[in-house]
Amino acid sequence: MTMAMRARSCIVTGGGSGIGRAIVQLLSSVGFDCLVVGRREQPLIDTASLCESSSGSVVPLVADVSSHDEVSGVIANAMDRYGRLDGIVNNAAGGGLMPFPSWTMGQLTDLWKTNVLGPAALVLEAWPHLLESGGRIVNISSMAVLGPFPGNGAYGMTKAALDGMTRAIDVDAAGSGVEAYSIAPGAVETEMLRSLVDDSQLPPAKAMDPSEIAQLTRACLEGERSGDAGKVLYAAIPGFVTTDPEEAMVALGRFHGS
Prior knowledge:
There is one protein chain. With 258 residues, the chain is of the alpha/beta class. The protein contains eight helices and seven strands; from the N terminus they run βαβαβαβαβαβααβα. The protein has a single domain (8-257), classed as NAD(P)-binding Rossmann-like Domain (Rossmann fold, 3-Layer(aba) Sandwich), CATH 3.40.50.
């Protein structure tokens, strides 16, 4: 029986808004039971409410994936609830403008915990269950790994490390049946984007809709992109995806230069 035919479960972190919410909405609509995780309860409840008519269930869980103690609880909750785990979407991330060289070690530590150590802890805790299901991992990265705008370099640095985890899983766990992917979006119309740049700096027409990243995430989780396992999928601009970083940067430059 294929994954598309049987009950499927997935953990989505940072699912209370933006890309994470769009991912949960799409996955639940195609039958995934989603445990949606985040730090703020009300946005998670709002996401679940938007999915009430979906064929898959959506359950909100307040947890901080940057805390190792809470990560183990997230996996335990998923297994108690579903009995299996088919996918993890590491979408939760910290950000904010941090121009170099004004970085502080406190800022970097917090960023690293949320954007790198939290996702790694979640995958490690879930690994035995992912092995059983032949599960898939999607790490939401960023085009900031290739071309950060001013003040966004520290964020891009952590996302580059997240891409490193994707590649490590592909190399070290080859033959395990588990696949890992990174998706590196360009500008996506979210609250996080607008906390960094306003409409005059980046017109809405130059940002993609979160549903584009949701569709790409679904394709990875359902095995449609198995040939790209272990790679970074650069969704640099609307309607464009490549695994070639140079091609991604050329497309990004042309789009925003037009």
